[in-house]
Amino acid sequence: MSLKFSASSLGECLDKAASELNIAKENLKYKVTKEEKHFFKKIVEIEILESELNKIEENEQEIIKNDIENKVTENIEEDDMEYGAKVENGKIIVKDSGNSNEVITIKPCDGIKLYVNGELSGQIAEVSSRDNIEYKFEEVEPTKSAEIQITSNKMEAYLSIKSNPVHIYKLVEQGYRKNLVIQKKRVEDKHPAKYTVNELRALLQNKGIRYGIINDALEEACQVHHVEDLLVAKGMPAQDDIPDEIQVLFKESEELKGYEETSDKIDFRNRFSIANAVVGDVIGRIIHGTTGSDGQDVFGVQLKRKTSKKVALKIGDGCKLEHDEVIATTEGKPSFKTNTFAVNKQYKVDQVDLKSGNIDFVGNVEVTGAVLEGMEVKAGNELLIGKNVESATVRSGGEIRINGNVLNSTVTAGCENVERKQYLDNLLTYKSIMEELRASAEQVKGNKLLGDRKDGEIIKILIENKFKALPNLSRSVLNFNMSQGIQHSELVTFIINKLIGLGPLKMESYKELEKFENMLDEEIEEIEALIVVPADIYLGYAQGATIEASGNVYITGKGQYTCDITALNKIEFTNEKAVCRGGTLYAGSEIRVKTVGSEAGVNTILKVSKKGRIFADIAHYNTVFCFGEKQMVLDISSKNVEAYLDKDGDVTIDKFIL
Q1: Angle value at C-alpha 515, between 510 and 519, nearest 5 degrees
Q2: Tell me, what's the pLDDT at 425?
Q3: Residues of the chain with pLDDT under 70
Q4: What integer pLDDT is reported at residue 446 of this predicted model?
Q5: Of the candidates 9, 66, 348, 532, which lies 20 to 30 Å from 593 by C-alpha distance?
Q6: Residues 6 or more apart in contact with residue 38 via CB below 8 angstroms
Q7: Keyword set for this entry (predicted)?
Q8: How many CA atoms lie within 13 A of 409 on its CB side?
Q9: Is the distance from CB of 64 to CB of 183 less than 8 angstroms?
Q10: What's the CA dihedral at 355, 359, 361, 364 to 10 degrees?
Q11: Spatial distance between the Cα atoms of 244 and 232, rounded to a whole number of angstroms
């Protein structure tokens, strides 16, 4: 049982409760159950806590007991009377006096209804032994309530049960009195019936909870009257697929240890050791992933797992795959690029000149000397040049290391995978056709140009008559995936089941094409990331040269003068005394230079993408900082320079004046 009081303020509520319960306001224990603000008034409601009500009830019983004892003491002569009204064994007994003028009265206390001869009596009733006297306690049915709380992610449901019992009373035994005041005392509490498992199941069902119901928890809740935040239903989270993992068991190059601490003279251009494999070396391994499982929330809604594609591991020249291990079958330099392992044989020449002729080799190339004027070197993989490159052209599909200088030459590292580029072009064309096909199907259906035909029939007719190139394009996309060992991806499955032959008839709605477009977007994004193979260039000094890398460009020596340098990732000058003077440098992510420009104001242009950053230890005036189409010219020589686009898209240069 709970008592609630409402008023226009908290203070008024407490005053009401204190007055009615006959307890000091500061001793009340309560909680605010409602606080509402309206245009012209405010409503506050409080609930007196059950423990406080029990205390008040006990106080009342003590007061009643004391009052009875006091009355007994004050009127002890009445207990010795031989007539009047008394309470014995729960019954009210009346014994008349011999004097007809004597009046016997009975007064009920609060919570008791007194009936005399079947009629409800008022406050005080005159009675005699001839009257039929009955009474009833005012009864209130016990109440109970149950509430289900569901977490925001819909994965758990919690049960709370509240039970409000009623008190059972009996009459206080009293001897004969002329003016009997009948009193009551509490003997026990009556609780409502506990919830049954079926009732709680029905409650969950009304909330829409269908999955993950914990039967043991329901049975536990049915054994008690009070429950707070009991977990009664729990969904099953989706278990994402664990993708295949390719382990590369070699380092393509490793920096020599301890060169920073030694006092010996160090040639920084030769501080890297190159990896080498012999027959039988395990250079890689594939760890197969596992297929996850879809989940369900407590409402029974399916939660899709994140699927992963099978890794298409390729084995190139010089190695083989046995028991998920990649083993070298020849001696050479191991490599791993675009999911392909290979051990590349190396072509070695002392010097590239008219005597040796131009070099064009599919594997690694090592030139121990220089590449002289007018000569050309092309390496299918990595290229190492021991001395200078003078007025020559060198190109490589992989990393280039030049231990000397690059003078008036062109150096290019990184190549494009033709097969993958063609696949990307097909995907882009596919995406464009899908958008047109979906728009056409929507128009045909909306205007009923083909009557009441189903969406699948409309799409099939459009493919056969308007988008005739789609079947051949579908086969090209499938062939590429099959060649990569991919047979069960979402993209491949959709094409086979719903775009080839009678597949379109299986479509229930043209909106399924929109989902397929999303699959194409994901595939395009993945292939675009694989098209460019990052290949770095390492060189000491460059002058009047054109240098391009699909990865990074590292200038380890004196720097560069009037060169055009492009790196799809970053450009970095590693020597503390390196100077970047004149020319144009472009990097996809960042440029880090030591000293840029000159005291004479030689114009040097540094370019990065909009999200890129430019760092310079010292930057002289007339240096140009470019971010996309926006640029700023440094007007005063500065140090500790950092340039970037701020949140408003304006060029910002943080610096200290020299």
Answers
A1: 140
A2: 80
A3: 1-2, 38-41, 50-80, 252-275, 415-419, 421, 531-532
A4: 87
A5: 532
A6: none
A7: Coiled coil, Hydrolase
A8: 26
A9: yes
A10: 90
A11: 37
Q: Where are the beta strands (DSSP E) in 213-291?
A: 227-234, 245-248, 253-255, 272-274, 282-287
Cα–Cα distance for residue pair 484/482, rounded to 1 Å: 5
CA 445 to chain CA centroid, nearest Å: 39
Burial of 171 (0-12, 13-18, 19+ CB in 10 A): buried
| Cα dihedral 515, 520, 523, 528 sign | negative
Q: Pick left, alpha or beta for residue 620 (phi over 0 → left; psi -120 to 50 → alpha; otherwise beta).
A: beta
Q: Evaluate whether 328 touches 283 at the Cβ level (below 8 Å).
A: yes
| Integer Cα distance of 35 and 51 in angstroms | 23
pTM of the model: 0.45
Can you name the residues that pair with 561 across neighbouring β-strands? 543, 581
Please write the tens of the pLDDT for every residue from 27-74. 778 888 888 776 556 788 888 775 555 555 556 555 555 554 444 444
In this prediction, residue 190 carries a pLDDT of 85
Q: Are 299 and 210 in contact (CB under 8 A)?
A: yes
Amino acid at residue number 313: L
Phi, psi of 98 (to 5 degrees): -70, -15
| Cα 336 to Cα 351: distance, rounded to the nearest angstrom | 28
The answer to whether 561 and 544 are in contact (CB under 8 A) is yes
